[in-house]
Structure prediction request, 340 residues.
Amino acid sequence: MAERTSGIALSEEFFRTGVQPLLDRGRPDLPYAAALLGRGSEVLGFDDAMSTDHDWTARVTVLLDPDAADQVDGVRSMITEAVPSALGEVPTAVEVATLDGYVRAQLALEIDEDWDAFDWLSLPTLRLAALTGGVVHHDEIGLREVRDRLAWYPRDVWLYLLAAGWWRVHPELNLVGRSGWAGDELGSAVMAGGIVADLMHLAFLIERRHAPYRKWFGTAFSRLEIAGSLGPHLDRAVAATAWTERQEALGEAYTVVAAAFDRLQLVDPLPLETVRMWDRPFTVPWADYPSLLTAEITDPAVRSLMAQWPPLSGVDRVRDLLWAPQHRAAIRALCAHGTA
Prediction:
């Protein structure tokens, strides 16, 4: 085995040489799916030599049809008792569950139900990235269909999230200059860092990609199409030591994101304006994308969400703060009713 084989390649090899032959012999008539899913840098394809210093295994998740719940323990025992404990020098690990049980454990979500806007606003992006990433080795029970459902938001939910994303950025832009003008370059830099993250967040939304957890946020961003044109402006904003340079770099970054958004053709093109709030000496770009986006929303659940939580409310952030599955019901209730 080649040194530092990727986690995805290890999982594939373990499935083909260990798990699949056992299932073919021991349970030839049992429909199942097998995949590398869930937590871990290898699921995102970002693992490297350092990733092997803890919890590093050649692992496979085997999923059974919901109707086969009574067979989970038997299948788990059959596999774990017979597969090799290591693939080369890498320990092996097998997880067995039903498809519905696995998704429930990861997202507290039922796969046999329709999901409305309040469900989507309670699903953490890092969990969505983990469940739709990785690789499917084998599927006879509909795992790919579930992943396809989770791959991106319904259109009107997407429009709401884009509107919320633009509102994360604009109110803060002029404050970068205001803090610097008052002599607080550190505070200005901290706000600029937040805006950089919010512009990156918008880039993920524009390219229809679920953002991973923070450790790999920048790495995943670097693989977006927009990264080549947007990244240098973000680097400059973060590295700037004066608020004037920071403001200029963020304005250029905003313009790049706006151009990428326009190419989606979700709403009519809108020219950017350069505005000075209250005639202060801080110039920032602005286009009222949120109003155009929300005007296009027709889904009753999303309209109800907007009435309770306008896009500028920030409620879309809660799911990524409280990302553990046990919090989802409370977040959904918050989105739907204004209280958990």
